Amino acid sequence: MGKFVYVVYKAVRDDQGEFQGVLEYVQDIQPFFEIDSDFHRDI
What we know:
There is one protein chain. With about 45 residues, the protein is mainly beta. The chain has one domain (about 1-43). The chain contains one helix and two strands. A two-stranded antiparallel sheet has the order 1-2. The radius of gyration is 17 Å and the shape is elongated.
């Protein structure tokens, strides 16, 4: 079974505003779905 992940892509620019590349940030958010609480029961 797969996992839930949160992915963000952000442009990286130099001091003159020129595009240099892309920063990719990936965070495993599976533990948030495993929290047993009243708040998360309806998700």
